Amino acid sequence: MTRERTRPDTSGEPGYITPEGYRRFEEEAGRLWNVDRPKMAKAVQIAAAEGDRSENAEYQYSKQRLAAIDRRLRFLGQRLKVLTIVDEKPPDDGRVYFGSWVTIEDEAGDARTYRIVGPDEIDAEKMWISMESPMGRSLLSREVGDEITVRRPKGEVTGEIIEVRNAPPES
Fold first, then answer.
1. Which of 13, 24, 94, 119 could bridge to 130 as Cys pair (CB 3.0-4.6 Å)?
2. Closest by CA position to 44, among listed 53, 35, 32
3. CATH topology assigned to domain 101-165
4. Rounded distance, CA 165 to CA 101, Å?
5. 15-85 placed in CATH 3.40.50.2000
């Protein structure tokens, strides 16, 4: 019996990542391997010593958590092997490149700043968008003053690029 996935496994496919994103993956893998996994392995050992494992909820939970940690470690190991770190600073010519911060003003006059990153490091809270997303694809290679239109399920949205930076904007 094969297991159906809700999305394709991209762990073995090459991709681009910023140096900060790669560092976060390495730190997560280090924390999982050196802190979380030993702690959970100890919890499994303690729960197993309590007797009947079939009715021991703590044992079952600890085993599941340990398996989840191992899956994440396997995924991170596969991704770290195939990711390409893009640490070269793009030219400061007003065009949008991988790693750029782009400020867009929409039709209502609201301005939002996005960062173009690889699919492994998207973060809605920080407004980091994938270069493979519809918005990311429409922004790459554009420049200040260009108007972009992005198709969304709710309908099209139009905006103008008002600023492109290769360094983080001051908060």
1. 119
2. 53
3. Chitinase A; domain 3 (3.10.50)
4. 5
5. no
